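Project standup — Tuesday

K.O.: blocked on the structure for the chain from last sprint. Re-posting the sequence here as requested.
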Amino acid sequence: MAFIHFGKLPFELRMKIWTNVCFQARNVPIIVDDLGPVKIASQPEEVSFCSYCYRAPLAPFLSVLHVDREARTEALNHYRLILPTNHEFFHITTSTKEEIYFNPDYDRLCIHDPMYLRFNRIQDPYRDFARRVLRLGVQFFA
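H.V.: unblocked you, prediction finished:
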């Protein structure tokens, strides 16, 4: 059953409803995605380094970001994009954009596959992940 008169409610009440929606705690499982080696051909010897990014394809969908402009504007006061990656090697920098919406006051970051962080050719992704999480001010971690 749809509530077709929602838009007729006072603005302040609609904002309280959208804010309340943003305070629903979620588990956000993080996956470390191996992007493979980056090869630098301009060096005298072939040089390569491993690259990776963080994704959350299993995180619950944030419908509040897709309802309308009013809901999205309010939601973006509570959610922010997190966990970009930057890889620097010699004079080359590669990066991936932030794609994970996260509310640091209510959401919980979860490492989806912790074994991947230890037995992978990625150079120390757990240390990198932990450093990034500390900078985010995450309240809950599972």
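K.O.: great, moving the ticket to review. Residues 8-141 form one domain. The longest strand covers residues 27-40.
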